[in-house]
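quick q for whoever's on today - can somebody do inverse folding on this one?? i tried earlier but teh output was garbage lol. tokens:
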């Protein structure tokens, strides 16, 4: 059974045991999740667009001199003055990532998610619809710089490693810096496979460690003949996403291929997997895939991308019977953009998307929370909006994911083919520490890194209204007991808070400043939080307050855990 499923079962049993239990509250278990990955906030990089640490692996001559097929540095035409976008390779690699592992760890992150590492085609794609400024679902002229156009899932793309720095060496190096590796994987599709004027090398082809096992042969899907042509048997004869090959998940050989391929990268040090386009592949495949990988790596944490803002549509992937794969929290992301973007909506907009009790997810505390990524417009917010968003992400339920550059508001508001995936570079990394978003992110991320309550604790909301939010996170399990009270103010002026509900007597320590506040039985905690500020009060003690215990008992009993 997966760690996700085991945690869900433990939570269900704990909920039944604590509801109405006669055991003292100090002896009961209270937690949102026991998943180890919940301790690690995640920094997400499109590897080619982060930092070019080794110009010798740039492959600048790849694709030849033909402007239609050359692969390095392909600016998108039609950009407004001062704007840019690029659909060619730009040189980011493993060395650039490892060289900056200290920068990532120093911000408070515990894991790095990097885009797929497998071999991609060597030329720009000549089929499909031409990429235009600000366009979407357009691929002509584009390269596989992002890694999602896999050709040989057993081999590294040559743009990434350096001598002495293959994937195993990268993961080992990241571990030395205290960082886990989250590997992005694809099982739904390979490279663009048809509509080329002339068939191009590698496009529509799939290899196993250099041996050709499938070839779309530049044929439209309806002309494939998997019954008679062995090279077509990895593909479905129906179109799915643009010109990408539509892999046939019902073919047992395909499952074997991907289990073997991704087992190889797990053996080389990947700690967790992010699954691309998970909803384009049926549940039975993921159930089998997850079971096979977890037989090799018990407790392997995985999360998928199901780009849908309706929780009921993405939650089934998290259920044990469907593989127990967590997901990126798109429904919450939609509201985060409202609340922290230019519109600055009311905090109340977030409440119904938390699903803390009786929700559809196996466990909402294991969802990956984020406000933007590489497939959508970056958060369109002021510096203060980013700061407020990060204050929420690093204190509320879920595992926070920050897209590279968001620590400085890089390319804010820009969508794909309009700058979303632009090159970041060493100069921006070096200058990042001076940016106000970076400073505030580092401040709150380090608090989360050191707080079991913020990482894995149950969340009890006290106030989500206007520009103010107040909630508890409570973790009590084994030898660890911590209560955190979070106060958030996204307003332009200081805000006063008076909290009495669920407040346990004791000596509370302010995470920022370290001042101690002694709270007597029946007293309130009074605090002023600066404009666009946060304060976290910590009480390192078991739960003893009857009102708090009763609320936590209800939360454990009514949290829906599948």
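ok took a stab at it. sequence:
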């Amino acid at each position: 059974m997966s760690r996700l499923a085991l945690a869900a079962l433990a939570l269900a049993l704990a909920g039944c045991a604590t509801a109405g239990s006669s055991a003292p509250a100090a002896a009961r278990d209270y937690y949102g999740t026991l998943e180890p990955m919940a301790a690690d906030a995640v920094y997400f990089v499109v590897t080619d667009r982060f930092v070019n640490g080794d110009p010798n692996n740039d492959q600048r001559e790849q694709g030849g001199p033909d402007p239609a097929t050359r692969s390095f540095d392909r600016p998108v035409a039609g950009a407004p003055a001062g704007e840019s976008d690029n659909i060619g390779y730009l040189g980011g690699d493993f060395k650039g990532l490892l060289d900056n592992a200290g920068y990532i760890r120093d911000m408070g992150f515990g894991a790095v998610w990097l885009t797929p590492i497998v071999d991609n085609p060597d030329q720009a794609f000549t089929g499909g619809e031409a990429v235009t400024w600000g366009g979407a679902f357009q691929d002509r002229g584009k390269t596989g710089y992002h890694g999602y156009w896999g050709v040989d899932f057993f081999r590294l793309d040559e743009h990434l490693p350096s001598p002495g720095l293959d994937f195993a060496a990268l993961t080992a190096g990241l571990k030395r810096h205290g960082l886990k590796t989250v590997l992005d994987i694809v099982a739904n599709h390979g490279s663009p496979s048809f509509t080329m004027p002339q068939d191009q090398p590698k496009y529509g082809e799939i290899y196993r460690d250099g041996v050709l096992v499938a070839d779309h042969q530049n044929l439209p899907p309806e002309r494939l003949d998997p019954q008679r042509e062995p090279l077509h048997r990895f593909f479905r004869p129906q179109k799915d996403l643009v010109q990408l090959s539509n892999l046939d998940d019902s073919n047992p050989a395909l499952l074997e291929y991907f289990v073997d391929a991704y087992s190889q990268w797990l053996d080389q040090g990947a700690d967790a997997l992010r699954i691309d386009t998970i909803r384009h592949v049926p549940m039975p495949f993921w159930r089998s895939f997850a079971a096979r990988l977890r037989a090799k790596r018990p407790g392997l944490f995985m999360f998928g991308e199901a780009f849908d803002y309706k929780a009921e549509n993405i939650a089934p992937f998290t259920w044990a019977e469907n593989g127990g794969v967590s997901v990126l929290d798109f429904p919450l992301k939609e509201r985060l953009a409202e609340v922290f973007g230019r519109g600055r909506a009311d905090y109340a907009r977030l409440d119904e998307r938390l699903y803390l009790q009786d929700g559809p997810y196996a466990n909402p505390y294991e969802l990956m929370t984020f406000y933007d990524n590489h497939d959508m417009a970056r958060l369109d917010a002021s510096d203060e909006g980013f700061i407020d968003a990060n204050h929420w992400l690093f204190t509320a339920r879920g595992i926070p994911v920050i897209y590279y550059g968001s620590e400085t508001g890089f390319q804010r508001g820009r969508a794909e083919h309009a700058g979303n995936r632009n090159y970041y570079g060493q100069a921006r990394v070096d200058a990042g520490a001076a940016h106000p978003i970076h400073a505030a992110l580092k401040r709150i991320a380090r608090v989360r890194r050191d707080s079991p309550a913020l990482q894995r604790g149950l969340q009890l909301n006290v106030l989500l209204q206007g520009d103010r939010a107040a909630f508890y996170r409570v973790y009590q399990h084994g030898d660890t007991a911590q209560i955190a009270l979070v106060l958030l103010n996204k307003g332009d002026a200081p805000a006063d808070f008076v909290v009495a509900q669920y407040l346990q007597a004791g000596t509370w320590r302010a995470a920022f400043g370290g001042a101690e506040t002694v709270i007597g039985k029946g007293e309130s905690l009074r605090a002023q939080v600066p404009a666009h500020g946060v304060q976290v009060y910590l009480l390192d003690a078991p739960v003893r307050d009857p009102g708090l215990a009763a609320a936590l008992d209800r939360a454990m009993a009514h949290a829906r855990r599948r």
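fwiw The first strand starts at residue 42 and ends at 45. also The chain is about 25% helix and 20% strand. so keep that in mind when u check it
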